[in-house]
Amino acid sequence: MMKSQFFLVSLFAIISLSFTDPSIKSAPEKVKEVFVATRNIESLKYELIRSERINGSYVENHVSIKMHRRPYKIYIKELAPNTGLEVLYPHPLDEKKALVNPNGFPWVNLKLDPKGELMRKDQHHTILEGGYDYVVSVMEYLFYKHKDGISNLLNDHGTGTLNGQPCEIISMVNHNFTYHNHVVKKGESISSIALKNRLNEYMIYEKNKSMSLFGQIKEGDIIQLPSDYAAKMVLFIDQNRQIPLKLEVYDDQGLFEKYEFRNVEINPELTEEEFSDGFTAYNF
Predict the structure, then answer these.
(1) Strands of the chain, DSSP E
(2) Which of the following CATH numbers is that of domain 30-178+227-275: 3.40.50.12100, 3.40.190.10, 1.10.600.10, 2.50.20.20?
(3) Which of the two residues, 180 and 21, has the higher pLDDT score?
(4) Which pTM was predicted?
(5) Residue 229 phi/psi, 5° resolution?
């Protein structure tokens, strides 16, 4: 009798393993769903909580954002710590500049270069990288760069909740993350090198302490580059919409940057007025 029971249990286990539940997705499949879900987003409204390591300390802020993807338009209002600061891009009179209401000294609106020193102060990224495009492009680049071993890099941490929203938690751990010497070629800049290799521009500056954020490099200079964007990334995915809710990025020193997307509205109707300085809700 015992042998019969053992046989039935074993048979049941074999049959169960033979029929995998198709609704159970692998970590690579879950990440691919994020690529698909974000590809056709044309407009967004959301709040972003940013934490970035700057000179060994973390700089944080909380902003409200409206953005249109094509053509690219963005309005940002800071909620903390510089409450009331506003940024509109492109500037109504100059499509290469941004309009900035500092809501403080010098008490006038400013026309600034979005890639310039004032707008990049204490920030890893520019306002040209709003929404999901930049975040997802980095993940997608790494995904396909390491496609032959992607299953070994991705870890499925199951489900959880973030601000009351059910989410999937996936990490990508690159044990081969390192730095290597790069000989600067003619015409290269830190920005062009970072863009070409999908690296974090600020991480390059941080590793090469002798360079200032806006310093120049020249042909023949030797700089250290990270092998990838990050040593580790942790992605929190909205279970219902397959969009990022939070992204944590780590380098060899620990947490490098963290972005949390809250109250996300996908493809809201945004009028032309909402990207103009004359919109009544703004204070330009």
Answers:
(1) 43-54, 57-68, 73-80, 86-89, 98-101, 110-112, 154-162, 165-173, 179-183, 222-226, 232-238, 244-251, 254-266
(2) 2.50.20.20
(3) 180
(4) 0.88
(5) -60, -35
